[in-house]
Design a protein that fits this description.
Elements (H helix, E strand, L loop, with lengths): L1 H12 L12 E3 L11 H8 L5 E8 L3 H12 L7 E5 L21 E4 L1 H10 L2 H5 L3 E4 L1 E6 L5 E5 L9 E5 H13 L4 E5 L3 E7 L2 H7 L7 H4 L2 E6 L4 E9 L6 H6 L3 E16 L6 E7 L2 E9 L2 E8 L1 H9 L2 H14 L19 H4 L16 E2 L4 E10 L3 E2 L2 E3 L5 E2 L7 H21 L7 H32 L5 H8 L4 H12 L10
Parallel strand pairs: 2-3, 2-12, 3-9, 6-14, 12-20
Antiparallel strand pairs: 1-10, 4-8, 5-8, 6-7, 10-11, 11-12, 13-16, 13-17, 13-18, 14-15, 15-16, 18-21, 19-20
């Protein structure tokens, strides 16, 4: 296993692309339809029109991570005066989203960590989450279908009130949007798609000709030109790709990626049970983990990893049969209940004693029985992908545009929020020093800060995934940990401790 972890880490740190400037003279970005040189006719056309808009930052992608970046920028003294364009065709950005508490929860949810909650509180967005449905959880239970053992974690073990919070994606998104709307942040939302992008040195001369005030071009710096789906263009000193795993910005900027598709799908849905759930549950099955996450009231969210064939079959079977399969997967199917806690094996797990206390005296609990399906069943293919670089001159990637991970640990959105917070802070530092916010040296500071953390988590998750699915067949994470002892435990320990303490966006398993 030690070799497996080292191999995964070395593979990720080898993800590099040749260093080259994207802004030497006028550059046509691969895939762009914009002419390489802004010719005289184009200049004259632009001069007669005052519609060309210039911004400090253009955020392409108005999802949770893109809106988080805007919220963080709006909350910092050094960045709140920036002008920001948000480009996304999602209709939810055009107005306030209607969220009714009496409606059943949407199946698309996120488990946010204490660190993410802290970021959102600092930005003033978390109060809007608390006005809508959400569920804090203070307990976690992880176990194995073989009955070998189980692990339980309690917030009180690390002197916390909770271990995390589950909220619908639309609640998180609406909270971030409301945070921006209730501020005086200068933002413009374009309900459009990005068609092409050109990075050039001469674009500022065009912009200056169309601005009423003739500020010096040295103060304005260079700009990227973004052509939108309505045929108009805008200019920005910095373009942020927050447009997901199939990022158009990443494609146009020529960032290379490394990754692979798993032969697994995740099926998600909202279910109901007789009583309120305050625990996050995860059981490892032969084909992958199933998680039951509290979402408030008597509702929980199911995230179940399985083969594509199984997911397609379970998506279409009758509700009664599906519920039977879910209860079997969470309780009595595949194997016996564990009779002992893995944390009780003090010789093997003595590392817990140094940093925290595991709830060793708590007995194994059976998850609540699912009685009703209250949403559609949605299926998503699983993959891992990582951009070889996060930044070049005038362009930077955050969130899924930079990295997509296996949902084994529910890390995607938390890593993305960490990216957004880090980038906003580094932009603020650049402004304080009088640095052009699109300068590659500044953006590389963000990459240097976030890339190692993201790669480390991706490598750990990939090691877990391979240990479970490839190298050990039916052996699960807990069995692999027991089998490999000290060689396997250190990264798991760091993951648990840093998550539980709230120091990092590293949750445990879920």
């Amino acid at each position: 296993m030690n070799r497996l972890v080292k191999r995964s880490v070395s593979n990720f740190f080898a993800l590099k692309i040749p260093s080259k400037s994207l802004c030497t003279g006028v550059v046509k970005v691969p895939g762009s339809n914009v002419a390489e040189i802004l010719n005289e006719n184009e200049k004259k056309e632009n001069t007669t029109s005052n519609s060309i808009q210039q911004y400090d930052i253009a955020i392409v992608g108005g999802g949770m991570v893109g809106m988080a970046l805007a919220s963080f920028l709006a909350s910092m003294p050094m960045t709140k005066q920036l002008s920001v364009a948000i480009i996304d065709s999602n209709p939810a950005l055009s107005g306030s989203m209607s969220i009714k508490k009496e409606d059943p929860p949407d199946p698309r949810v996120s488990t946010v960590t204490p660190a993410t909650i802290s970021f959102m509180k600092d930005a003033g967005a978390w109060k809007y989450v608390e006005q809508n449905r959400h569920a804090y959880f203070d307990k976690m239970q992880v176990w194995d279908y073989t009955g070998l053992g189980y692990a339980r974690y309690n917030a009180r073990d690390v002197n916390k009130d909770f271990l995390g919070c589950v909220a619908e994606n639309k609640v998180l998104h609406s909270a971030l949007l409301s945070c921006i709307q209730d501020s005086d942040f200068k933002r413009t939302i374009y309900p459009l798609r990005l068609n092409s992008m050109t990075l050039n040195r001469s674009s500022m001369s065009v912009v200056e000709e169309n601005m009423s005030s003739r500020e010096s071009s040295s103060a304005q710096g260079q700009c990227a030109r973004l052509q939108l789906s309505d045929g108009n263009s805008i200019y920005a000193k910095l373009v942020v790709g927050a447009d997901g795993g199939k990022s158009r910005v990443r494609e146009l900027a020529g960032f290379k990626t490394t990754g692979w598709n798993y032969s697994q799908n995740a099926i998600i849905c909202t279910v109901e049970h007789p009583s309120e759930n305050r625990c996050a549950w995860q059981r490892f099955l032969p084909t992958g983990p199933i998680a039951l996450l509290p979402i408030g009231d008597k509702f929980s969210n199911i995230v179940w990893t399985m083969s594509p064939t199984e997911s397609n079959q379970r998506k279409s079977i009758a509700e009664e049969e599906f519920l039977k399969d879910v209860n079997s997967a969470l309780d009595y199917g595949y194997g016996p209940h564990p009779t002992s806690s893995l944390s009780g094996t003090r010789d093997l797990f003595s590392w817990f004693q140094m940093d925290t206390t595991v709830s060793a005296n708590e007995s194994f609990e059976v998850p609540p029985k699912i009685t009703k399906l209250v949403s559609e069943r949605m299926v998503f293919p699983l993959s891992l992908r990582h951009a070889n670089s996060y930044a070049s001159k005038r362009v930077v990637l955050i969130g899924d545009a930079a990295h997509t991970v296996h949902p084994l640990a529910g890390q995607g959105v938390n890593l993305g929020f960490g990216d957004a917070y880090s980038l906003s802070r580094i932009i603020a530092e650049g402004i304080a020093l009088g640095t052009d916010i699109g300068e590659v040296n500044l953006l590389k500071k963000y990459e240097a800060e976030r890339k190692p953390a993201n790669i480390s988590m991706m490598a750990i998750l990939e090691s877990f995934q391979k240990a479970y699915s490839v190298d050990f067949g039916p052996f699960n994470i807990l069995r692999a940990a027991a089998f490999h002892g000290a060689n396997y435990i250190p990264p798991l320990k760091r993951t648990i401790i840093s998550y539980a303490s709230g120091e990092q966006n590293f949750p445990v398993f879920l």
